[in-house]
Amino acid sequence: MRTAFIDTTAALLDEDPRTALVLADISASQFASVGHRHPDRVINVGIREQLMIGVAGGLALTGLRPIAHSYATFLVDRAYEQIKLDLDHQGVGAVLVSVGASYDGAQEGRTHQSPGDVALFDSLGDGWTVRVPGHPDEVKALLRDAVSTDDRVYLRLGEQRNRQAHRDADRLLVLRRGGANAPVVVAVGPMLDPTMAATEGMDVTVAYTHTPRPFDEAGLRALAGTAVVLVEPYLAGTSSAVVSRALAEVPHRLLALGVGQTDLHRYGSPADHARWHGLDADGLRRSIEAFLGSVSG
Amino acid sequence: MATTLTTDSGARLPGLIRRLTGDEKHAPSAHSTIDVLQVLYDRVLRVTPDRVDDPERDRFLLSKGHGPAAYYAVLAAHGFIPDAWLDDLAGPESRLGHHPDRLLVPGVEISSGSLGHGLGLAVGTALGLRARGLHDPRVYVLLGDAELDEGANHEAIAYAGATGLDSLTAIVVDNSSASYGWPGGIASRFTVNGWTAETVDGHDHDALYAALTGHQPRQPHLVVARTERKG
Question: Can you give the residue ranges of the Transketolase N-terminal domain (chain B) (predicted)?
Fold first, then answer.
């Protein structure tokens, strides 16, 4: 996904004189050649993430369309107040593109992980579009769409990917249809494949989206029976409030699965972390069966 | 190139500031910045109320957003906002709060208040103007000496100096309010990163004018305006 981001961004810099890229050393070498072509619009500020977002805000104030990029924990967690004030409060937009968010950097440890990034954008109100592609082939169109607007867009790129791309999944896209009033399982981004594997043989509807914000509330209302399961690749419960709002008029139960809140103080691989957080197919199946069985059984 | 403005807002400012009521807490901040703001808007900045959206205008960014009474008074004196707005500072219907909001006040380039944001935004603005081929406008950003405690400033100081961002002028109003001070002086904190710097009496209009127009090619410029210690 990072390669798709780099290639598409380089093309946008060539095509559109409004596009600008702000880096804080991360990925700077991959953008060196396009930087030589556009030295005024490819800006590496060094390891200075607060300045990276401040510069993005200043560029936007002059009418440019900035893309800022780093590891999620540096881009979002570290520069949170700059996002809040240098972008949102100034009334300007940017495209923030992260890598590594939840536990792609498992071997790097907690300092390189940001499972709470999407929740942080939620804390800023409803002004942010959040895109969490599940396949590299979804990235190009999402990035091009983001750069073509002046909106505030967060593009969260991970190393985990589904086998197949679903480019048109900005709303809930049904990929497995259960019976009437079957429970609905919503899989976000790279959680689709483990969710499909986990629900094999269950009478559930599985819907996929790469765009959790704005969440497809109308689509959920149209699908929902009385039980909803969220499977998100970031902090568990991040979308619980959105689902509660969407289904405020409907009696329902909700199971919100995602990355746990606890700092595990462990290294290992992303697959290890998926297992520890119950986000591999076996863990998801156990959680979903227990949730559905707790009422029907 | 430079069009020297020769308006004199001095006679009107004391009365305008008096209209801003209920701001006892921030009064010292207003007194420390009034002369710098007056010289900027009377003689330096190429911006007028009919040019607040002109890409070719100079930009003035008030980073030190607390104590904006002098700023509002100068904006009123130059016709950016009606005088009557000054009579209801931070009221429920007021456009003027204790920290300025660019979406509410014509001529205000950035919303500020939380310290340490203006210099980064100023660097980005200067870079954006250059990328758009707008080489005439300058970007001025006003900070306080205590504001320099915020680490974000030092990211911007180092980067602007290293890259020779010569359309940028920072002004630090030094009223000795930083808890631990700046050993060796504020100017040296910037010049070590390649800025030019001048330190002047913050109430001496001619000295301020000379310093505010004293920038050199290929280096960002700093003006330290010394004023009395914050009361």
Answer: 26-227
